[in-house]
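DOMAIN: structural biology
WANTED: fold as tokens
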Amino acid sequence: METTLVYDGSFDGFLTAVFTAFEMKLKTVKIVTKQRFQEPLFGGSETVYTNQEKANRVWAGLKKKMSTDEVRSFYYAFLSEKTSVEDTLYNAIVYVFASKKNVGSDFTNKHILEIAKLTKNVGREKHRMEAFVRFKLTKDGVYFANIEPDFNVLPLIKRHFEKRYADQKWLIYDLKRKYGIYYDLEKVDIITLELDANFDPTKTSSAIFAEVELEFQQLWNDYFKSTNIASRKNMKLHIQHVPKRYWKYLSEKNI
């Protein structure tokens, strides 16, 4: 009979659920977040509370069985937020722990293969966010950027921006997931905001952003127009390098 393990949606919570499944010696397991949980018609359910020690033990066990990149791919796949990703990861972990040799790159296993595909997609989104994020200076002296990535890549881009913009305060906010990362010149914290219902992140509002930012946006737009040679425009190639779904982040596209 299948047992559904319900967790809080965090990666450590998921790892705790994996530990619980092994600890209870469950044969058939389904792991879901509390947001997606529906009482099963058959089988039982258990609520799993995040336990850092248990999560660390599972993670340490994976590190002993696989290479660093292979272990990292499990975290990347988790951040894809795909509906069935918990079950994919759990079955892959069972396979890894049951094998005497390293099977972290055994793509004959459908779960390992699926993790590799998800990792590739999440990694691509991470790099695009690092390339297309555009900051705007607010009146409070904080550089603000909004994103709505397909995957939950904020945890992955944190280090990039912390190193690149270490001398200024900045905030990158995920409008889709309603949380952001804020750097205060010393450390990066996870924060949530109460955004006004009329707030349009694609517009550089004079009520929120500094006057110098408004002037810069105008200068940048004028420059973009002046260097854009109509006869050499290749929209197909342009979209290939800068997909339309990222245009909302680029000030030169909001003209």
Observations:
- The mean pLDDT is 86.
- The helical segments are 11-23, 52-65, 68-78, 85-98, 110-132, 154-164, 211-227, 235-241.
- The first strand starts at residue 3 and ends at 7.
